[in-house]
Structures are given as structure tokens and as C-alpha cells.
TrEMBL record:
Similarity-based family: Belongs to the short-chain dehydrogenases/reductases (SDR) family.
Alphabetized Pfam families for the sequence: adh_short_C2
GO molecular function: oxidoreductase activity, acting on the CH-OH group of donors, NAD or NADP as acceptor
Alphabetical keyword list: Oxidoreductase
Species annotation: Nocardioides zhouii
Sequence ranges assigned to domain Ketoreductase in this UniProt record: 7-213
Designated name of the protein: SDR family oxidoreductase
Gene3D superfamilies: NAD(P)-binding Rossmann-like Domain
Length: 241
């Protein structure tokens, strides 16, 4: 049974490893997906594949966000679900990264998420759902690398709690998924020894798959999670309990 038939879902960071898996899974459940990301060719290819709407978007630009969100809402009448995958990582240690690079991580991961939520909520009906993407790193901190990423994801986690309180009177839910180490190209940013240690961080002894994150996105997008807001789903194989 298609659980999202007739729903309009906007996904940022849609052509990345996690985003693309979720776009395909949401479309398979009957949703019409707004495929939003920076690269026009990849956006159009994925939108064509799933029968969605291609949306070329820079989440750090308030003008871009307003333009794209308003256009998608006009096309689809409303936005039932927003999924914020857009994010970047800088694997450098906190004493190596330049202030500008640190700010860039926060601009995409935190400011971009906030801008998308602010722009989308006026177009969401009661029963709407926002799914933000945190990280295990946002719960436990970075190790020898990725302090900026960990700090930004901690901010996303806390922002989602504030968002849930803000949106609840409008009947809109907001939750956050905290993935552990998932098999995507993002892991290639880390040093080989850090990358090699990642499967062993999980109690299950392996990396997660993008499909396992997509399953959590679908759960939070459907009425199966209708009494959940401000919650965290830790999908990390037991690397943080």
C-alpha cells in the first residue's frame, strides 16, 4: 500500500547519498517529491526518474529559499512534508579549520535548515511534518576531526525541539533523525584510519545504509508517527544509546 499518495514532499540535499535514497523511497510510496539541490543536471535527472519537480536551490540564500519554496507550494497547493538533508562536512580538526570554513558549515547545516523551515511552514496544512537531519556526532561530539560538523548538528537537534514547540499550535510536527555512520560518499572526506574505524563504533558492527535512513524518513512523514514531535530517532546501529 502506498502510504503517501497525494502528498507533496520537498526534500533538500536531494541528490546526495541519503537524500536520493529518500527521494526514491518517498516517490515509491506515492508522494510527489520536490527534488531540491544545487546541481541542476543531477536535480533534473532524479526528478525525471521519480516524476517529481526539479528545484535548483542554494539553502544558504534567503532569496533562493523563498523563491523555490513559494514556487513549489503554488504548483502543488501546499507542502505536506519538508525533509532537510542539505548539509556539508569539513573533517578538519578544530585547531586546523579557518573561521570562514567553520561558518560555511553552519551556514549550510543550521542556517539553511532554519531558512527552509521558516519559508515552508506558512504553506503547510495541519498534520504537516518536518524531518530534520542531525547526526550521532551532534550527540557525542567529534573525535579528532569534524568538530564544526558535530557542533552544527547539535544545533540542528536543539533547533528541532524549539521548532516543534513553535509549530505545534498549527498542527505541524517536527522531528530529527540522527544517523550514525552511513555508507555514503560523505565518509570519503575523513582520513583513512578514521574511516576504517567507523563500522566498529556500532554495536551491530557495520555501517548503515541510505535505505535504512529512508525508512525512518517515511515513518516520520506518515501518520504512523502522528503523536511524535520534538523527538529524535537515533539510527546508528547502537553506536550511541
Amino acid at each position: 500500500m502506498e502510504r503517501l499518495t497525494g502528498r507533496s514532499i520537498l526534500v533538500t540535499g536531494a541528490t546526495g547519498g541519503l537524500g536520493a535514497a529518500s527521494v526514491r523511497a518517498l516517490a515509491a510510496e506515492g508522494a510527489h517529491v520536490g527534488v531540491a539541490d544545487l546541481g541542476e543536471a543531477a536535480v533534473r535527472a532524479l526528478a525525471d526518474e521519480v516524476g517529481g519537480t526539479p528545484l535548483v536551490l542554494d539553502v544558504t540564500s534567503p532569496e533562493d529559499v523563498t523563491r523555490v519554496v513559494d514556487a513549489f507550494a503554488r504548483e502543488r497547493t501546499s507542502i505536506d512534508v519538508l525533509v532537510n538533508f542539505a548539509g556539508i562536512v569539513d573533517p578538519r580538526r578544530m585547531d586546523e579549520i579557518e573561521p570562514e570554513a567553520w561558518s560555511r558549515v553552519f551556514d549550510v547545516n543550521v542556517r539553511g535548515t532554519w531558512l527552509m523551515c521558516n519559508a515552508s511552514i506558512p504553506h503547510m496544512p495541519r498534520g504537516g511534518s518536518i524531518v530534520n537531519i542531525g547526526s550521532r556526532a551532534g550527540l557525542v561530539g567529534g573525535t579528532t576531526s569534524g568538530a564544526s560538523y558535530a557542533a552544527s548538528k547539535a544545533a540542528v537537534i536543539c533547533f528541532t525541539k524549539s521548532l516543534a514547540k513553535f509549530a505545534a499550535p498549527q498542527g505541524i510536527r517536527a522531528n530529527v533523525i540522527n544517523p550514525g555512520c552511513i555508507e555514503t560518499a560523505m565518509l570519503d572526506h575523513f582520513a583513512p584510519e578514521v574511516r576504517a574505524s567507523m563500522p566498529g563504533q556500532a554495536a551491530l558492527g557495520r555501517l548503515g545504509s541510505p535505505a535504512e535512513i529512508a525508512d525512518s524518513v517515511i515513518f516520520l512523514a506518515t501518520s504512523a508517527s502522528s503523536f511524535m514531535t520534538g523527538a529524535q530517532l537515533n539510527v546508528n546501529g547502537g553506536s550511541h544509546m
